[in-house]
Write a structure and sequence with these properties.
Helix content is 33%, strand content 16%. It has 434 residues and is α/β, with parallel strands linked by helices. The strands form four sheets. The chain has a seven-stranded mixed beta sheet with strand order 3-2-1-4-10-9-11, with helices on both faces. Strands 5-13-12 form a three-stranded mixed beta sheet. A three-stranded antiparallel beta sheet has the order 6-7-8, with no helix packed on it. It is globular. The chain has helices at 13-28, 44-57, 82-93, 174-178, 199-202, 220-226, 237-257, 263-275, 299-303, 317-320, 330-339, 393-397, 405-432, and strands spanning 3-9, 35-40, 64-69, 100-103, 108-110, 123-126, 136-140, 146-151, 165-170, 229-236, 278-282, 286-287, 358-360, 365-367, 370-372.
Length: 434
């Protein structure tokens, strides 16, 4: 079953290059379904320019598409509301044939395709305490390939995404709004502050309310188990059609009480609770913050690069060895090869170790005189005379003697994001410039 991947952007050059990078990583990861960029607030000349470029990238418009919408920015400055507004506009005005839609952010790069399969045909195996004390479980297929990582105490992993069953990346945000107005609420959510009146957002009879009333309501346990979710969101198309009107309606109401970055994310989880759409949460969709010790990201798998059954190494050869300015590290290529998909070097031997699905580069990564920060990338990076990002593998590996766990993770991101950006530039030139 094909999955339709979609992401929301404004019309800035900053998100334009991200949208192109995301597309080429999705294609290279082996994704088979269409990819749609929803671009909000573009002027007519910008629409014409973007559409012309998209047609050069994919003349058939069968793989890469763009959908233009008005701006849904709140107050002209909170552009994250373009996400629910733009997607609602897209799904209302588009004939979507795929049964499953995955929403990612434009600052995400795929290593593995997003699929509707979850626990189908997999065996749950607890992660031993000598690997992690965080209470994790891996799901392994019949060939011994590790497919999923998640917290052990979560509800059972359903077989697949279908109507009434959704999936997404585990984020620690579900209990924030559900505890609003209680003694356990975080600072911005105390009784005298911000989201103290959930009925103002959800309505007086909504299941998203956190106190008993005549109808269903959301408990802290339910919020932790089903609604502590963030991108990637994977739902059936019919469930998207049910949740998007609520997400779009809730976002300005949440923002009015909580005018901060995560307002639209809280609004999404509240809309999911309102529709009682339960999400199967996994850690293996993403790595992002190299400093986090939260088990909700799949850094365990990266920390174990170069680790044997009896020892662990923090040196950088395991996460960066073999990388070039336009080629991934050897061990990563072997791990990708083991999964059996992706358009990479087929001469690499398979390594039966796991990989996250997505690299989410929403942080700044600095190591060995290398920096990857999305706000530092030239907005016109993708052009026919564009220069690749600089990458010196020798300088990186020369720093390995003093490496900490965080430095190893940071080096992993540097040694993947820069080559992947440069590979995307090569692909772009092949499609657009030849």
């Amino acid at each position: 079953m094909d999955v339709h991947i979609v992401y929301s952007t404004d019309c800035s050059g900053y998100q334009h290059w991200q949208s192109i990078s995301a597309y080429y990583s999705i294609k290279r990861a082996g994704h088979q379904g269409p990819v749609t960029r929803v671009a909000s607030g573009c002027k007519p000349n910008d629409q014409k320019r973007i559409l012309s470029e998209v047609k050069k990238i994919d003349p058939t418009q069968s793989r890469f598409r763009v959908h233009f919408t008005p701006s849904f920015a709140i107050g002209g400055s909170y552009k994250y509301s373009n996400k629910p507004g733009g997607l609602h506009h897209w799904i209302t005005n588009t004939n979507i044939k795929e049964e499953v839609i995955a929403l990612i952010d434009p600052d995400m790069i795929l290593l593995r395709p997003i699929t509707p399969e979850l626990g189908e045909g997999l065996t749950a195996v607890p992660v031993s305490n000598d690997r992690s004390s965080a209470g994790l479980v891996e799901y392994i297929d019949e060939h011994g390939t590790i497919m999923v990582l998640r917290k052990k105490k979560l509800p059972d992993l359903p077989p697949r995404v279908e109507k009434g069953v959704a999936a997404g990346q585990h984020f620690g945000i579900g209990t924030v709004w559900v505890l609003s107005g209680t003694k356990d609420a975080k600072k911005d959510f105390k009784v005298s502050n911000q989201l103290q009146r959930l009925p103002k957002v959800c309505g007086k009879e909504s299941p998203c309310l956190n106190t008993p009333h005549d109808g269903a309501y959301t408990t802290r346990e339910q919020a932790e188990s089903y609604y502590s979710v963030g991108p990637v969101y994977i739902c059936s198309t019919s469930d998207w059609k049910a949740i998007l009107p609520r997400w779009n309606d809730f976002t300005p109401k949440v923002h009015a009480q909580y005018p901060k970055l995560l307002a639209e994310m809280y609004a999404f989880t509240m809309a999911a609770a309102d529709r009682q759409l339960k999400f199967a949460q996994s850690s293996s969709y993403m790595v992002s913050d190299a400093k986090t010790m939260s088990p909700t990201e799949s850094w365990l798998w990266i920390d174990e690069y170069g680790k044997s059954s009896s020892s662990e190494t923090l040196n950088l050869q395991s996460v960066c060895g073999g990388a070039l300015f336009n080629s991934l590290p050897k061990e990563t290529l072997g791990r990708i090869r083991n999964y059996g998909y992706g358009k990479y070097d087929e001469n690499i031997d398979a390594i039966q170790r796991p990989l996250p699905v997505i690299l989410h580069y929403c942080q700044r990564y600095l190591f060995a005189n290398h920096t990857f920060a999305k706000r530092k990338i030239d907005h016109d990076f993708f052009r026919c005379d564009g220069e690749p990002l600089e990458f010196d593998i020798k300088e990186i590996l020369n720093n390995q003697l003093s490496t900490t766990k965080v430095e190893k993770r940071t080096a992993f991101m540097i040694c993947h994001l820069i080559p992947l950006m440069n590979m995307a530039l090569d692909d772009y030139k092949s499609d657009v410039c030849s």
